[in-house]
Structure formats: C-alpha cells, structure tokens
Protein: RNA polymerase sigma factor
Amino acid sequence: MTETRAAEQGGADDSWSVWMAAAQDGDNRSYERLLREITPYIRALVRQQHRSPDRADDVVQEVLLSIHRVRHTYDPGRPFKQWLTAIARRRSIDAVRRRIRENAVEIDAPLAYETYADPDANKDARASEAAEEIASALDALSPGQRQALELLKLKEMSLKEAAAITGQSEGSLKVGVHRAIKSLRARLAREGER
Structure:
C-alpha cells in the first residue's frame, strides 16, 4: 500500500472516529454524514462474502442497524474502522449461517400448492375463504369489543370520537380493542392450524 493511500485511509478513519464521537454526544448531522460515508465501505466488505446484490444490500442494512444499536459502545480513543469492520464481518457471517440453515430445510416448489397453473386462478377462492374466516372471527367477539374495533381500527376514529359515540371511556375502548385483537389473532391462528 502506498503512503498516500495509507494516509487517505487513516484520514477517513480519523474523520469517522470524530463523527462517531460527535454522534454519541447527540450531533445528528455528524451521525448522518458518518452513515453516508461508511456505507460504501460496508458494502465493499459485505460483497466479499455475498455476491447477490439483494443479499448484500440486506446485510448492509443489518450492519447499519447494528451500528445504530451499539453506537454507544464505540470508544473514540480506538480506531473506528476496526470497530466497524468487526460489526460488518459478524453480520455478514450471521447472514451466511442463516442462508445455510434456510437452504437445508427449504424446498423451492412454487407450483406444489397450486390447483391450476395460472397464478390468478386461486386468488378469488383464497380471498373469499379469508373473508369468511375474518367475518366469523368478528362475529365471535363480544358486542363491545366488535364496536370498539370497528370504530377505532376500521373506521379509524380517534379515541375521543369513539368515546363520544359509544358513551364508554377512552380507557375501556382501548381495553376493548386490545382484547378484540388478541381474540381475533387466537381464533385465526386456530383456523390456520386446521
């Protein structure tokens, strides 16, 4: 490596370290600039293990999220690039392991669940079955839960508006919606197991 290139890389590492330290102190502009500057470096690291552009992009996003989650652990007295590289390599390895596990159990047979070769042939049947299951699950709710769910989630009213219509308190409406959703999930899960 030439001295000029080493100096450039050292300069980037110094800048990144300064920006990360500023970000740790709450400077959002420094944090945004840091993320913009390190993304091509992360992408280059990730592409060493992932040739698929989609998979590489997914891993880059995972790395950026990891950096965001653990940014408080960075020590400004240490080289930033080493810290960043360690995170990128770990996320990249995690993705490789995940792909190996998925490939071991997944079988790609897109037509195995088709009744007809035409992909649109089964849409209406599946949609009407789903609509029937949802209608049946809604009918099983108590009248108060059904009303709270319809007003707050389906008609997208505010708590205040729904409380004025029903005469219930905002708290009881929240509880009603929570219980309705919980009941619907449980019932639909049981239907899905059949």
Residues 1-9 have pLDDT under 50 and may be disordered. Residues 80-105 form the longest helix (26 residues). Residues 123-193 form a domain with the Arc Repressor Mutant, subunit A fold (CATH 1.10.10.10). The helical segments are 3-24, 28-46, 53-70, 80-105, 123-139, 143-154, 159-166, 170-193.
